[in-house]
Specification:
Layout: E1 2-6, H1 12-18, H2 33-50, E2 55-63, E3 66-76, E4 92-100, H3 109-122, E5 131-136, H4 141-150, E6 153-159, E7 162-168
Parallel strand pairs: 4-5
Antiparallel strand pairs: 1-2, 2-3, 3-4, 5-7, 6-7
Helix pairs in contact: 3-4
Length: 169
């Protein structure tokens, strides 16, 4: 069984998360966890300063006490960010990152991490929304299969070289 635990900046989980890695062939498929955590910090800092805007919620994924992956859930407001024109015109959730360490791939952990992240999303714990989006490099067939198996479908748009997929929540 996988457990998701929030990652807070400068906690021990942060360093452990940064040390997770994918295979060399997968490096172009997903941002590094250090970049993702820095991005979460920046997004949340802006939210704290303005009292509105986008929110990033990073989680470590544990199996039997060992960190095996990472997921970052976003709650995004298109009116606050012109980068989201290919999504929708209302607030939405976003599976910003889904990352399984190379030592634990091929064991169903990505599917389980997505399921747990979507359980959180469906409670609308960060705010109201009707949609959850994600994106992946089209050559990343594992991600495409994982999201499609959960019920996500591509919306026909490409954003920064990534295929966008969505699911109604």
């Amino acid at each position: 069984m996988i457990d998701l635990k929030p990652i807070f900046i400068l906690d021990k989980e942060m360093e452990e998360c940064i040390n997770l890695s994918v295979t060399e062939e997968q490096n172009n498929f997903v941002a590094s966890n250090s970049y993702s955590l820095a991005e979460a910090y920046d997004v949340n800092k802006k939210y704290a300063e303005k009292g509105e805007g986008n929110i990033a919620a990073p989680y470590a994924a544990y199996k039997d006490g060992k960190m095996v992956g990472f997921v970052m859930i976003g709650y995004l407001h298109p009116r606050n960010d012109e980068d989201f024109e290919n999504y929708c015109d209302e607030p939405f959730y976003y599976i910003w990152r889904l990352f399984v360490d190379k030592e634990y791939q091929g064991k169903g952990f990505g599917t389980e991490i997505l399921r747990l992240a979507m359980e959180k999303v469906k409670t609308k714990y960060l705010g109201k929304a009707n949609w959850c989006f994600s994106s992946y490099v089209p050559e990343n067939t594992a991600s495409k299969r994982t999201f499609a198996a959960y019920g996500f479908s591509e919306n026909g748009c490409i954003d920064d070289g990534e295929a966008i997929c969505k699911i109604n929540i």
